[in-house]
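Researcher: For the annotation table, I need structure tokens for Ribonuclease T. Please keep the output clean. Sequence:
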Amino acid sequence: MAPFPARFLRAFALAFLLTLGSTLPSRAGGTPGDFDYYVLSLSWSPTYCRSAGRNADPLQCNASRPHRFVVHGLWPQFERGWPDFCRSRAGEPSRRTLTGILDIMPSRGLARHQWRKHGTCSGLSPEDYFDLTRQAFEKIRIPAAFNTINRPGKIAPDAVEKAFRLANPGLHDAAMAVTCTGGRLKEVQICLNKDLSFRPCRAVDRSGCRSNRLTVDPPLRRY
């Protein structure tokens, strides 16, 4: 069988990165600022890097200090579904703004896409949206075990939720979901009010991974 052209592999890798998220229906063309709450989606970087392979974003997957949990996005949500690609007059984020978020969202392409799809619905300027994204990320304490993983391991999705709950007082199981792909840890999604306080989100909670055990790969410098 002939190998797939490189452009198809690159397209597949980008699609994997940009389509992570909930399976509830979206409502394209919403009104900026009209939503109920946010979902902060934290992606386990080694899973993306292993799946994307040579076509992974080098800023994320060939970093001198390998990434672990990174921000996939901060998503305005409705109680059911979410708005996206809203008609905003805020314009595009500047290169300076995109560069300023790379330490927690290490892909300019992903950051630009997140602004267009989700940030435009926040009612904020690009600068304020990414500032809020940083505030949301810094609010979450990553369980210590995930900062020291250096070999593949197995864990139940409920155990991942428990670790985050214990590390973050006030965070409950009903306010988050653990997602998976191919039996591997994919994301931890945490629901936040507009003031970034924790809040329950039944629709997101019910969309979590149903596997009994997940593989958690360690970060590597090159894949």
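Researcher: And a one-line annotation?
Model: The first strand starts at residue 26 and ends at 28.
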